[in-house]
Specification:
By secondary structure, the protein is an all-alpha fold. Helix content is 68%, strand content 0%. The protein has one domain. The chain is globular.
């Protein structure tokens, strides 16, 4: 799919996204009303999407608008040979992590289906939180954020920079009571660090699928949601999730190595 970068501006996207998200999420700790807390949480969550939509549809660039809508709704962009990876990588990473944890004394029963979710955000159904997170984040990250980085960097450097930005974006969630991030931080700060580090190889995997499928946002949303729900599906120990990060890192290295023409291509998206 041809790319244009006439009005993709990284700073215009990432700075307001960070400001809006962080203001909303940090503010949660200072309010008492549960409904207000939920509104602040959702407002922060949809910030990447909101900023991306504003920048795209307030732009005079008709090509950018058409490309965004095409990436969002066109199922023909999806390559059938990538569907197994799309569906299987998240659960496979969990299974391998559990198997690798066995020599350290952890049980195979970690693969038992969990009876409940590990976190909650007020009265919001956790399943919907996981779904909305995938949808609203990917509309922003893959709808605009990565596009803006592809102007000045090849895919390897652009993905690495994005992975760091994406990881840091989650930081305020460690202070949102009862969130997943808050819970793991209070279990052990190393588990919180593992989450931040784990975003990096995950970003490489999802960006590979995104580009392999002609920049389909649908693919990114599906993979992100499958990864989210897989994290909650099994009764996996926090240490095993640290091992999963290593598994994701192995997958990411293999993907980059086998797709060097994608990640090391020096082509830049030039402004028209």
């Amino acid at each position: 799919m041809p790319q244009t970068a006439a009005n993709y501006k990284a700073l215009r996207f990432f700075i307001p996204t960070y400001i809006l998200t962080w203001c909303c999420w940090f503010a949660i700790s200072f309010v008492q009303n549960q409904n207000v807390k939920e509104i602040l949480f959702v407002s922060g969550l949809i910030s990447p999407c909101s900023i991306a939509l504003l920048l795209i549809f307030l732009s005079k660039d008709s090509i950018m608008k058409k490309q965004f809508l095409n990436k969002l709704v066109n199922p023909r962009l999806i390559q059938p040979d990538s569907i197994p990876a799309l569906i299987l990588i998240p659960p496979l990473s969990i299974i391998l992590a559990v198997l690798l944890s066995l020599p350290f004394g952890y049980s195979i029963h970690q693969l038992t289906i969990a009876n409940s979710f590990t976190f909650s955000i007020g009265a919001m159904p956790t399943f919907l939180v996981l779904l909305f997170a995938a949808c609203f984040e990917e509309l922003g990250w893959r709808g605009y954020g990565m596009e803006s980085l592809m102007i000045n960097y090849n895919y390897l450097y652009g993905t690495f920079i994005f992975s760091i930005l994406w990881s840091i974006w989650h930081f305020p969630l460690f202070f949102v009571e009862n969130s997943y991030h808050y819970n793991i931080l209070h279990l052990n700060p190393l588990y919180a660090l593992n989450f931040m580090v784990g975003v990096i190889p995950f970003a490489f995997i999802i960006n590979w699928l995104w580009k392999k499928n002609n920049y389909s946002i649908l693919v990114a949303v599906c993979f992100h949601f499958i990864a989210n729900i897989t994290q909650e599906l099994f009764m996996v120990e926090p240490v095993t999730k640290c091992i999963q990060t290593i598994v994701y890192l192995f997958f990411a290295i293999c993907i980059v190595y086998r797709n060097r023409e994608i990640f090391f291509d020096e082509h830049r998206v030039t402004q028209s």
